[in-house]
Amino acid sequence: MLLPIIIFLEDIIGNTDGNILSKCNGLLQSVLNFEFNLSLEVAVEILSITLPISRQLQNPDLDLTKCIEMINLVLVALKNNREDIKFTDIFNRAVSKAGVLNIDVKIPRICKRQAHRSNLTTSSTEEYFKITVYFTVLDNFITSIQTMFLDNQNNIVFKIQQLIPNYINALSKEDILKGASFYESDLPKQPNTPKHTQQTPNTPNT
Predict the structure, then answer these.
(1) How far apart are CA 67 and CA 69, in angstroms?
(2) For residues 18 and 67, is the Cβ–Cβ distance under 8 A?
(3) Average pLDDT per run of 10 along the chain, which is 206 residues long?
């Protein structure tokens, strides 16, 4: 799919001028960058894990507890992808496609002081891109999932779960009360129960 896009941009560049020429030339330079192509391969790898779960999460019969369990499984799979062997496969695929597109695979020029790019002192091209691209994209994706589904949610989901009949039998009385107390403010106020007046039995006249 990338090759037709490159051909299209090159055709526009050769047959136009002005602002459009400048924009298309900038797009072409971005596409013909190894970091861009590696990022695409990383995205494909990540989405191959998240896409099936994304479809399952749209099931209206899925309860919150199962949802959290599935999200945790995805996070485990993504964290396991930090292994060197996994990135090597991704890197090799990107290098292979770069060869077809005549893209140089090299470490960017390193400056003594760098404010906008990671400035690593490694001679290994694979190691450089693993840290600056792969780990960055993967960790940002993991953080986004945790923020969206888990941060400040586990406690709420746990309290909701405590009131679901399917789970309630496995809980203690204290756990059930904790779950019920979470919704106390949503329950209608009960009228004050009048205290029973204790009557003193009549004492017979003497």
Answers:
(1) 5
(2) no
(3) 83 84 88 91 91 87 79 90 85 92 83 57 85 92 86 59 67 71 71 53 55
